[in-house]
Amino acid sequence: MKISSAEFVMSNSDVTKCPKDKLPEYAFIGRSNVGKSSLINMLTSRKSLAKTSGRPGKTQLINHFIINKTWFLVDLPGYGYARVSKSAKKVFQKFITAYFSKRTQLVSAFVLVDCRHEPQKIDLEFMQWLGENQIPFSIIFTKADKLSKNKLPIQINSYIEEMLKYWEEMPNYFITSSSTGLGKDDLLNYINEINSQLKNS
C-alpha cells in the first residue's frame, strides 16, 4: 500500500465524539518514549503529521488521522513515563480503556515496544488486558536501527520467549525503524490486506 493522503481529523478525550464514519481503524499505542510519533510520520511519509518531542508524553488525546480517505490511523496517549500527574494518568487510562472497549470501528491495535529493552511489565500487562478483552493486536518492535545485526535477533527472540510464558503462540509482530524505514512496507501491506478482506466480507 502507498499512502497518497494523510490528514489530521480530530483530537479528543471522549470516545463518543470520535468520527462517526464506519471506516476501519488501527490504533497505535505504547509507552510514552517508544517512538510512536516518529513511526507514524515514517509510515505516512509526513515529517510532522504526529507531533514528536524530546519530552515523553506529548500525545495526551485520542488523535484520528484519515489515510487515503479509506481508513483511520489512531494515535493514542502513551503509558508509563509521561511527565504528568497521577490524576492526569488516571484520566488517560479511563479514556484509553473506553476507546478499546466501545470503539466498534477498531480493527486492530498495534502495541509499540522498544526492542532495545527487556520485556517490561507494563507492556506485558497491557497486552494481557487486550487479550482478555478479545481485542486483536500486533506488536511493533521499534528502534531496530539502534541494535547491531547480531544483537537484534537475540533481543527479539528473548522477547518471544517471555511472551510464550503467557501466550499459547506469539502474537503477530513487526520489526521497524523510523530512521531507516525498516518494516514500513510490511506493516502497510498488512493493513491493506485486512482492509481488502473487510471490503470483500
Detailed description of the structure:
The chain is α/β, with parallel strands linked by helices and 201 residues long. The protein has five helices and seven strands, in the order ββαββαβαβαβα. It has helices spanning 36-44, 86-102, 121-132, 151-163, 184-200, and strands spanning 6-12, 25-30, 62-67, 71-75, 106-114, 137-142, 173-175. The chain has a seven-stranded mixed beta sheet with strand order 1-3-4-2-5-6-7, sandwiched between helices. The longest helix is centred in the middle third of the chain and has 17 residues, at 86-102. Belongs to the TRAFAC class TrmE-Era-EngA-EngB-Septin-like GTPase superfamily. EngB GTPase family.
Describe this structure in a few short sentences:
Belongs to the TRAFAC class TrmE-Era-EngA-EngB-Septin-like GTPase superfamily. EngB GTPase family. The protein has 5 helices and 7 strands, in the order ββαββαβαβαβα. It has 201 residues and is of the alpha/beta class.
The helix/strand order is EEHEEHEHEHEH
Share of residues in strands:
15-25%
How widely separated are the two ends? 20 Å
User: Overall 3D geometry?
Assistant: globular
* Strands in their spatial order, largest beta sheet: 1-3-4-2-5-6-7
Cofactor: Mg(2+)
Family: Belongs to the TRAFAC class TrmE-Era-EngA-EngB-Septin-like GTPase superfamily. EngB GTPase family.
Function: Necessary for normal cell division and for the maintenance of normal septation.
Protein name: Probable GTP-binding protein EngB
